[in-house]
Amino acid sequence: MIASLSLILLCQLVGEVAVRALGVPVPGPVVGLVFLLLLLLARDRFPALARGPLGDDGVESASRAMLANLSLLFVPAGVGVVQKLDLLAEHGIAILVILAVSVIVTLLATVATFVAASSLLPREEDRP
Amino acid sequence: MSDNPFSLWVYLSQSPLLWLTVTLLIYAVTDAVSLKTRRHPLANPVLHSLWIIGAFLLVTKTSYTTYFAGAQFVHFLLGPATVALAVPLYENRRRVAAAILPMLVALAVGSLTAIVSVVLLAQAFGLPRDIILSLAPKSVTAGVAMGISESLHADPSLTAVSVILTGIMGAIIVTPLMNFTGITDFRGRGFAAGIAAHGIGTARAFQVDEVAGVFAGIAMSLNALVTSLLVPLAVTYLVR
């Protein structure tokens, strides 16, 4: 558990360092995600890597536990709404309408594109 | 026993213990209620945690800074949780590889739509420039969106609020909207939820359908990558 958490934090740390060093506008944790993904893929090729947090479902179960409670992690930032009450009193209706319309448009555009693009491909079951 | 009950409150309200406990306890209760209603969209645990904790802070006249000093231990985990998204992506790599083309096309269209629609709408409503910049990354997970907002010299705390409002609205609306369209491909439905409504949409997708949840998680992590590259570009071209 601790080793798995350390590996996740280490990936994030590598991400943060890489982002600062290269000056790219990508957030550190996203680079950390790519780094962890590469580690997991490398483990398939080099079984010697399958030890510690990378062996025996370690980093996988730690990640699943964290992702199972993902929505909790948004609560502290969301409570920040109490700081923005004056701004929301002034622009709140506009902001809510803008976000709602944008969400609906984005959901529809994404799902329509996904369905349209997959209908152009041969179905999975038809492949050898 | 303390001779003045207020001195105990003054002590506790300044310690991280109280606000960390309040955050976890209220979320545990609202999540249990959500489970009891068989995950009804309107029983969204984030939505109800926010107003209950917010009201509690206002009633006790506690500043957000004091609250956050305790709640930051939970907030900090947003970064590691973003890294952890590598795991569902890895575990479903075959399914992902099989749907890679529709996903990439939908990612490009969805990510662009999320950014451009919010910027154009905000301009149409005549919102000030700093608010527009703070709203632009609203469809990606809070940790990443706040990073983007910072790099644009916008207001990261307003970004966090709009990210969470977006996520809650997406989570509430996605199921009725998708049922209305008659689309039954849960890969696509989940993917859309992850693109439009990040982690809160992903949590919702996992409640509805396992495959939808996996695709939402993938959409959310890919969108975090693409949006952090697209927002600075979009802002340069769209916001004067």
Automatic annotation (TrEMBL), chain A:
Write down the superkingdom of origin.
Bacteria
What is any Pfam family matched here? LrgA
Keywords, comma-separated and alphabetical? Cell membrane, Membrane, Transmembrane, Transmembrane helix
Name the GO cellular-component terms: plasma membrane
Report how it sits in the membrane. Answer: Multi-pass membrane protein
Q: Where in the cell is it found?
A: Cell membrane
Q: What is its main location?
A: membrane
List the InterPro entries: LrgA/CidA
Give the transmembrane ranges.
Answer: 25-42, 62-81, 93-121
Listed name of the protein? CidA/LrgA family protein
Q: What is the species of this protein?
A: Bradyrhizobium septentrionale
Q: What is the lineage of its organism?
A: Bacteria, Pseudomonadati, Pseudomonadota, Alphaproteobacteria, Hyphomicrobiales
From TrEMBL, chain B:
Entry's transmembrane regions: 6-30, 42-60, 66-87, 99-125, 158-178, 190-208, 214-239
Q: Any signal peptide, and if so, which residues?
A: none
Q: State the protein's name.
A: LrgB family protein
Superkingdom of the source? Answer: Bacteria
Q: Which organism is it from?
A: Bradyrhizobium septentrionale
> What are the subcellular locations of this protein?
Membrane
Any one GO CC term of this protein is:
membrane
In the bilayer, the protein is annotated as:
Multi-pass membrane protein
KW Phosphoprotein (keyword) present: no
Listed A to Z, the keywords are: Membrane, Transmembrane, Transmembrane helix
